[in-house]
Amino acid sequence: MNPVVTIPIIGYMHSPYCEKFGIPRQPNLVQVESYLEMIEPYNDILAFEGIDEFSHLWLLWQFHDNKHQANNTDAGHKFRAQVRPPRLGGNQKIGVFATRSMYRPSPIGLSVVQFLRIEKLSNRVRIYVTGADLLDGTPIVDIKPYIQYSDSIANALSGYAQEEPQRKQVIWSEMALHQRQQFIQKDQIPIRIFNEMEQVLALDPRPAYHEDAERIYKMKFSQFDVNFKVIANTIEIVKL
Ligand code: SAM
């Protein structure tokens, strides 16, 4: 057996992404708020002294919700050298180490996020961020500050992912608008949640080659089951 490394989980992500469908494929594409909650003994506020001087953080985390660890040789699966990134339409293969695929030998995710604030309440320590691409409940294995002079490379080549994904226009059906009003007024749901929902949908979460204007897709976001359809460059939220 190849050598393995065991590393601790230091906390868990709490995000509105309750399922994988809809999660942006990279960080920093949407301003969606989430927080990490540290677990003992890493919930020591001293471990975060100085962190509020950084605007962005790197999160290292575990792809804990992979259907099968296709690329994890230690779980007895065969190493697959190539994957099919959704960005290439899902039908073109490319080397796994030339992608950010979740199916890789060490199922470790890496995401740059914007740091908002840290909150401490008795022994509970929460770090609020925006822009994360992590499923709710994702184990966090490390947090590091983003260092601008070193981590930002202005003219970097980014292969098949050179351009930011295009965004679609998001509109609301009359019914969905009415529901939104009710949720805001009666249930005190912050407007922010609906703005975040729009940003996520604008990235068009559908798998490649789905061009059925009649089809209603469902995305779970926060406590909502968002029903939407896609007509050309417009996404309509049909109901919540
Ligand atoms: N930014 C990270 C990276 O580069 O390592 C992740 C990139 S990966 C392409 C992003 C996708 O991982 C998301 O769209 C979501 O479908 C999936 N994902 C997020 N959290 C996950 C988890 N805990 N387990 C498995 N897959 C997850």
Low-pLDDT runs: none
Cα-based radius of gyration, to the nearest Å: 19 Å
Bound molecules: S-adenosylmethionine
**How many alpha or pi helices?**
3
Strand order of the largest sheet: 1-2-7-6-3-8
Termini separation (Å)? 49 Å
- Give average pLDDT, whole number: 93
What's the number of extended β-strand segments?
12
- What characteristic shape results from the CA principal axes? globular
Strand content: 25-35%
The percentage helix is: 10-25%
Element string (H = helix, E = strand): EEEEEEEEHEHHEEE
Major beta sheet summary: 6 strands, antiparallel, barrel
Classification by helices and strands: mainly beta
Pfam families: TrmO_C (PF18389), TrmO_N (PF01980)
InterPro entries: TrmO-like_N, TrmO_C, YaeB-like, YaeB-like_sf, YaeB_N_sf
Organism: Acinetobacter junii
Family: Belongs to the tRNA methyltransferase O family.
What's the arrangement of secondary structure elements?
Elements lengths: L10 E4 L18 E6 L17 E7 L19 E2 L10 E2 L12 E14 L2 E7 L8 E7 L2 H4 L17 E4 L1 H12 L5 H12 L14 E5 L2 E8 L2 E6 L1
Parallel strand pairs: 9-12
Antiparallel strand pairs: 1-2, 1-8, 2-7, 3-6, 3-8, 4-5, 6-7, 10-11, 11-12
The structure holds S-adenosylmethionine.
Pfam family, one: TrmO_N
Organism: Acinetobacter junii
Protein name: tRNA (N6-threonylcarbamoyladenosine(37)-N6)-methyltransferase TrmO
